[in-house]
């Protein structure tokens, strides 16, 4: 390739990158902050995981109707973050509230609260298979 052709190709590449970069940054920002209502499956999972008593459980259960989805996990598993929409976003400081598992043990779940004692995050461990366990089959225990 002649040097002037190469220079032209490089500057064309730079122009395309300059055009795409702000759009990509905006897309990433949006996908990080976009909140939505829980899906039926997410709502079922949270409802199952709060179905245990003990200290703080009243507050946790009271939040469930107000939860919104605030983010997923980049790895493709069905883990998700939530927030009680009546209150500001809590820092990602987690306290485990309960655990769940399928009867055959193929899927394990951990349910975490934020510093305000309200739901913040559901971790679904599926050995990379991305399985979504049926909420009504979960065996749930208080931590
Ligand atoms: Zn994941």
Provide a brief overview of the structure.
The protein is α+β, with helices and mostly antiparallel strands. The protein has helices spanning 3-33, 40-49, 57-63, and strands at 36-37, 67-72, 80-84, 95-101, 108-113, 119-125, 139-142.
Order of strands, widest sheet: 1-2-3-6-5-4-7
- Detail the poorly predicted runs: none
Task: Estimate percent helicity.
Answer: 25-40%
- Average pLDDT figure: 88
By DSSP (H or I, 4+ residues per run), the number of helices equals 3
Major sheet? 7 strands, antiparallel
Cα-to-Cα separation, first versus last residue: 66 Å
Compute the number of strand runs. Answer: 7
Structural class given helices, strands, pairing? alpha+beta
Cα Rg: 21 Å
Query: Can you tell me the overall shape?
Result: elongated
SSE order = HEHHEEEEEE
The count of domains is: 2
Strand content: 25-35%
Bound molecules: zinc ion
Element layout with pairings:
Layout: H1 3-33, E1 36-37, H2 40-49, H3 57-63, E2 67-72, E3 80-84, E4 95-101, E5 108-113, E6 119-125, E7 139-142
Antiparallel strand pairs: 1-2, 2-3, 3-6, 4-5, 4-7, 5-6
This protein binds zinc ion (ZN).
Write structural notes for this entry:
The chain has 143 residues and is an alpha+beta fold. It folds into two domains: 1-33; 35-142, no CATH class. The protein is built from three helices and seven strands. Strands 1-2-3-6-5-4-7 form a seven-stranded antiparallel sheet, sandwiched between helices. The chain is elongated. The protein starts with a helix and ends with a strand. Bound molecules: zinc ion (ZN). Zinc ion is lined by residues 73, 75, 77, 79.
């Amino acid at each position: 390739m002649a040097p002037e052709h190469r220079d032209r190709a490089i500057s064309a590449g730079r122009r395309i990158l300059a055009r795409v970069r702000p759009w990509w940054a905006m897309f990433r920002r949006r996908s990080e902050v976009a909140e939505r209502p829980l899906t039926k499956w997410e709502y079922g999972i949270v409802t199952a995981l709060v179905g245990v008593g003990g200290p703080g459980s009243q507050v946790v259960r009271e939040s469930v109707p107000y939860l919104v989805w605030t983010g997923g996990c980049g790895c493709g598993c069905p883990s998700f973050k939530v927030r009680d929409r009546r209150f500001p976003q809590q820092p990602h400081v987690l306290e485990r509230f309960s655990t769940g598992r399928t009867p055959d043990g193929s899927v394990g779940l951990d349910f975490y609260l934020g510093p305000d004692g309200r739901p913040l995050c559901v971790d679904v461990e599926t050995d990379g298979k991305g399985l979504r366990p049926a909420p009504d089959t979960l065996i749930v225990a208080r931590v």
